[in-house]
Amino acid sequence: MRQDEALDALERARAMDTKVRARGRWYAVYGIGYGLMSLVVVLTMGLTGTAMGASAAMAIVAVCLTALSVYQARQPVKPLGYARLHAWGILLWGAVYGLTVVAGMYFFPQVTAWWVPMAVLSALPTSVAGYVALRRSRSTA
What we know:
Order of helices and strands: HHHHH
Largest sheet: none
Distance between the termini: 25 Å
Shape: elongated
Strand content: under 5%
């Protein structure tokens, strides 16, 4: 391969990298959407403190997770480091969500001072993962 052919191949690879990275920005929408779902569900479940509130929260989860899963499955490109980033976001979310719900139901039923900050905290892991994916999609390295 001559130098001009190698430079041309390198330029095509850079152009493809830029195009593929930009297509991975969808994960920001997914992560933030997941975070918003968590915020609404935790508030609904915690502040109502009733079986009806828990049922409404689970209905919200079912609808949102279905929509987010369909959205995710239709994307042609996964962001850089997707598997690790997604696992980190979901595992950390699960820990925060579990702590929030278990501790909240037993020790802080319908206590606004517990449920509001914990709802915000539960929205952070996946939202941060989405933000990281967005930043990576804009980087040139």
